[in-house]
Amino acid sequence: MKPSIELKSVNSFGINACAYELHRADSVSVLCDLWQQAIAKQYPVLLLGSGSNVLFTDNFHGSVILNRIKGIDIQETADSWHIYAGAGENWHQFIEFLLNKSIYGLENLALIPGCVGSAPIQNIGAYGMELKNVCEYVDIVQLDNGEVSRLSTVECEFGYRDSIFKHQYRDNYAIIGVGFKLSKIWTPILAYGDLSQLDRTTITPQKVFNTICATRRSKLPDPEQLGNAGSFFKNPIVSATIAKNIRQDFPNCPQFFQANGHVKLAAGWLIDMCGLKGYQLGGAAVHIHQALVLINQDSATGMDIVNLAAIIRKKVFQRFSVLLEPEVRFMGINGEIDSVECIS
Ligand SMILES: Cc1cc2nc3c(=O)[nH]c(=O)nc-3n(C[C@H](O)[C@H](O)[C@H](O)COP(=O)(O)OP(=O)(O)OC[C@H]3O[C@@H](n4cnc5c(N)ncnc54)[C@H](O)[C@@H]3O)c2cc1C
Question: Which cofactor(s) does the record list (predicted)?
Fold first, then answer.
């Protein structure tokens, strides 16, 4: 049977893939029911929030369930706000909602597409902040029996674009809500990008929020206009020796020293140095201004993007001996596939 339900509108790359079924779950019980019904039909199941971190490499021969569990609850103690948000809340709107209630601390993560429930999965980060800095706990449901449990921040095992939800709790579990702890004393994080130009004496959360939104709008292509999934590759983390060798040949190479002695490199810079900005393959292309963003330039297929990513990985390796790994999750006929293997 050929899948016929279109997924173009539920993935930010705008890939024209199809599935057998597409459902929306607005409660935990509906989510579990839909999952169990699909399993009973022997369909693979794919949970999605907004589809802004996935690449469909093929049609999906299964059931897609969009998590739309909503609801926001706010409690306070003397020094903190404790907020619970349903996994299906829109991430950016959630930040705006809190800002309007004078609850601050998430501004640096403004305008990242996606749902609240997806944010812990890759520990979203931007402008000097990561989700793990504000996450108090994550609630999950075991889909085959409906059992709900709560994981503390430590149990989430957050890392750079990583968490336990990409590993142990990947299959048969869904995130249903996220708890946040935000201090009532606001401490701006202004070390990165355009934020460092702001006047610290007059800074406000709203100014940080506005600056982030304006910067992101000017730098990143809007998926509504040009399909993309943000940064396609993770920034590679290499040994100090490799970093030193690269610096000898490329003195301008941006390098960020990590607490464990390793060094983070900027994947976009490496791609740019290979002269790949604007490079096109089939309907896919490297964004002309942001080398780290691959775009659906002209009715790209998922495989156009995969083939382009493979070329980029090869060229970066030839030049720098560094292997890039995708940040974006690849979805094949039966579910997630190994993205590194796919582009190797
Ligand atoms: C223009 C643009 C800019 C971006 N900028 C950033 C950035 O600055 N920083 C950053 O970190 N990311 C960024 N991203 C990536 C993306 O926005 C984040 O990864 C976001 O958290 C994905 O949310 P989503 O709801 O779209 O997840 P989806 O793409 O729907 O899902 C992502 C993965 O999580 C799984 N999943 C989704 N919901 C659940 C659930 N409830 N339970 C269990 N598993 C689930 C899916 O199966 C999939 O494997 C950007 C993307 C775009 C398009």
Answer: FAD
Strands (E), 106-158: 125-126, 129-130, 135-142, 147-152
pLDDT tens digits along 233-272? 999 999 999 999 999 999 999 999 998 999 999 999 999 9
Contact 10, 48 (CB under 8 A): yes
**Helix residue ranges per DSSP H, the chain:** 28-40, 91-100, 205-219, 240-249, 267-273, 302-320, 339-342
Is 291 near ligand 1, meaning CB less than 6 Å away?
no
193 and 272 in a single domain? The answer is no
pTM above 0.85, yes or no: yes
80 shares its domain with 194: yes
Q: For ligand 1, say whether the CB of 215 is within 6 Å of any of its atoms.
A: no
Domain carrying residue 15: 5-67
Look up the CATH number of the domain holding residue 192. 3.30.465.10
Residues 55 and 111 in one domain: no
